[in-house]
Structures are given as structure tokens and as C-alpha cells.
Design goal:
The chain has about 375 residues and is α/β, with parallel strands linked by helices. It folds into three domains: about 110 residues, Transcription Regulator spoIIAA, CATH 3.30.750.24; about 40 residues; about 220 residues, no CATH class. It is built from twelve helices and four strands, in the order E-E-H-E-H-E-H-H-H-H-H-H-H-H-H-H. Strands 1-2-3-4 form a four-stranded mixed beta sheet, covered by helices on one side. Helix 2 links the parallel strand 3 and strand 4.
Length: about 375
């Protein structure tokens, strides 16, 4: 194949026309790419390349290979490649080849050394921690403004959120708590029946529910229900630029959106936990009276004797801590959400995962502190 079948024509001030003619078959060879490179060197201001294929004959993958090589060279030199003048088949082949090339480059980036991935992850965690502490600082400042009467928090919004976090969560908390009480009582009954000590089912269910299980189950329920809701609501507001609009108007998003949600959940978590304790004990009562044939009065009397007031206070401390964790996790992920639909889903998932993980960690820490204090 002769060089005349590829004729570069420079068109001032910044265009290069490539006239492609004759047959382009891989079996007979393709023109040298050097002629195009020489044009790039002679005219370093070229910003656009387009084609004239009116004299093009038969062609196969040889033309596609040439075009892909030209596309890579143009990408490296920040030159626009106008493919409108090429045959439709060549345009499709070039688009397909570009897609495969981009996927290969992405895979090469993914397959970076393990040490580099660890370093990138550490830097990302450090940056996220900085943002998180900034968020906590703004939230603390907003809370101090509320105490001093300078806050612009909307109380009607607060009461709406209280209703959403409280009364509307009762059915789900009731169902899960009763089932947990049933399970605890049933598992305990299987062992205690061997010793004729069925009455101690009341001890197992009462202490477990009041001290920790009521708070944990309520926390997990509220993480999936309310924490995810907070993240989704704020995430959608971030996507729709509503939070940016508040900032433009001089309104603090933390004070206007986050503070009422945190206060509402922290207020309602102890009440929901008390209710979950009652429902869990009721579940144990169903097993104790229905399956073990215990006297109802005796069951409640034994529960009252077994559950000390210290257990109740420990459970309430758990609930307050869990309320703070759930609200902050949901609101933080919502505020930091990206500006796309997929980012909202990712933020919601992260809020639930972080909430449940932090609840488990907080439970371990509180349990250890109670052990040290002898509570």
C-alpha cells in the first residue's frame, strides 16, 4: 500500500484533514503512521482531526487498527478526533475498540500494588475522619446555640420527626421484641426443664431484655428504619442542591436539618427501649405460661425480684448512646452524599452498616465499663 492512500492536509489555524483512499486491507499492509506524527510535530497547535473517505475502497480491521492507534495518540495530545467522515462500520469498530481499551486501563488501575491500595485507603480514612470531626464540631456548636436560645431550629419539624421516630416505630418494635422474648424463653426453657427450674426463665428473659437486649434490638431496628431514612432524606436534599440553597440563604444545614433529628431520636430511644423491654418480657411470659405451665402471678413476681434497678439504668444508658450513634451516622452519611441517585443508595447503605457496627462496638465498651464498676 502506498503512502498516497493516506494524505494529511493541514488546514490553518488548527485543523488536520486526513484523506483516506484506496483499499485498506491488513493482508496488504497499512500506511505508515509517521506521516501523521510529522504533522503533529510541524503544527503543534492542531486541535481537531477529521476525515475525507470519499475515495476509500475496500477495508477491514487494518483500518480499525490504524484508527485506534490514531485515537490513542490524539487522546495523549488533547486533540479532538471527529469520526463523522468515516464509514458507519468503521465508526462502530472504533467505538468498540475504545471501550475495550478503557476497560483494560481501568483493570490496570485496579491491579495496583497492595501497598499502594493500603496507602490510598489510609489517606481516604484520614480525610473522612477530618470531615467527620468537623461535622461533630458544627453539631456541638448548634446544640450550644439551642441551649442559649439562639438556635433557628424549627420546632414543628422537631415534633414531626419525634412522631416518626416514636409512635410510628411501635408496631415494628413490638413485633421484634416479642419474638426476641419468645426465643430467649424457649432456648432457656430447653435447658432449665432438665433441672426442673423452669421458673428461672423469668430471670433469663427479664435480665437479658432490660439490661441489654431490649436496647440492642431497638437500636438495630431504628438503624434500619430511621437511620437509613435520615441518610436518604438528607442525601436526596444534597442531590437536589437544597442543602446548597440553605447555605446560600445563610441557614446552617446542621442546625436546620441535623440537630432536630439527633434530638428527636435521642429523646425517643429510651422510651422505645422501655417499651421493647415490656414486650420482650411479655414474649417470655407467653412461653412460660403457655408452654411451661407456670403461674402468671408467679412469673411476674419472679421477674420483679430478678430485675434490679441497676439493670434498668444500664439499658437506658445503652439506649441513649445508641440513639446518638444512629442519628449521627444517618445524618453524616446524608450530608456527605454525592449528587447522583446511586450515591443516595450508597449513603443509605453506609449509614446502616456504620450504625450497626458502632452499636456492637459501643455495647462491648459499655459492658466492659459496667464490669469494671461492678454494675
Amino acid at each position: 500500500m502506498s503512502e498516497e492512500q493516506l494524505t494529511p492536509v493541514y488546514q490553518p489555524p488548527d485543523k488536520l484533514l486526513l484523506k483516506i483512499s484506496g483499499d485498506w486491507r491488513i493482508a496488504s499492509g497499512t500506511p505508515s503512521f509517521e506521516e501523521v506524527i510529522s504533522q503533529f510535530k510541524s503544527h503543534n497547535n492542531i486541535s481537531r482531526i477529521f476525515f475525507d473517505t470519499s475515495a476509500l475502497g475496500d477495508w477491514d480491521s487494518g483500518l480499525a487498527a490504524f484508527l485506534l492507534k490514531l485515537s490513542k495518540e490524539c487522546a495523549g495530545r488533547n486533540i479532538t478526533l471527529a469520526v463523522e467522515g468515516l464509514p458507519q462500520g468503521a465508526q462502530k469498530l472504533l467505538a468498540l475498540a475504545r471501550t475495550v481499551h478503557e476497560k483494560n486501563e481501568a483493570m490496570q488501575k485496579i491491579a495496583e500494588p497492595a501497598l499502594a491500595r493500603i496507602g490510598t485507603k489510609v489517606i481516604a480514612i484520614k480525610e473522612e475522619l477530618v470531615v467527620f470531626f468537623d461535622f461533630l464540631g458544627e453539631l456541638s456548636y448548634s446544640f450550644m446555640r439551642l441551649i442559649t436560645g439562639k438556635s433557628s431550629m424549627r420546632w414543628p419539624d422537631f415534633f414531626v420527626i419525634v412522631q416518626s421516630c416514636g409512635a410510628q416505630a411501635f408496631p415494628l418494635v413490638s413485633l421484634i421484641s416479642v419474638l426476641v422474648g419468645l426465643i430467649l424463653a424457649f432456648v432457656g426453657a430447653m435447658q432449665l426443664k432438665m433441672f426442673g427450674a423452669q421458673i428461672f426463665v423469668a430471670d433469663i428473659v427479664g435480665i437479658a431484655m432490660v439490661r441489654v437486649m431490649g436496647a440492642i434490638m431497638t437500636g438495630i431496628i431504628m438503624t434500619g428504619r430511621t437511620g437509613a431514612s435520615f441518610a436518604a432524606e438528607l442525601g436526596i436534599m444534597q442531590t437536589n442542591e437544597e442543602i446548597d440553597a440553605l447555605k446560600t440563604l445563610g441557614i446552617s444545614p446542621i442546625e436546620h436539618l441535623v440537630l432536630p433529628r439527633v434530638l428527636a431520636l435521642v429523646l425517643m430511644m429510651p422510651l422505645l427501649t422501655l417499651y421493647a423491654n415490656l414486650m420482650g418480657i411479655l414474649g417470655g411470659y407467653i412461653i412460660g405460661v403457655g408452654m411451661l405451665e407456670l403461674n402468671p402471678i408467679e412469673y411476674f413476681t419472679r421477674t420483679q425480684e430478678a430485675v434490679a434497678i441497676n439493670n434498668l439504668w444500664v439499658g437506658l444508658v445503652h439506649s441513649v448512646v445508641f440513639g446518638i450513634i444512629i442519628a449521627i451516622s444517618g445524618c453524616f452519611r446524608g450530608i456527605q452524599c454525592g449528587r447522583s441517585a446511586s450515591a443516595v443508595g450508597e449513603s443509605t447503605t453506609a449509614a446502616v452498616v456504620n450504625g450497626i457496627t458502632n452499636i456492637v462496638i459501643a455495647t462491648a465498651i459499655i459492658t466492659y465499663i459496667c464490669q469494671l464498676l461492678g454494675v
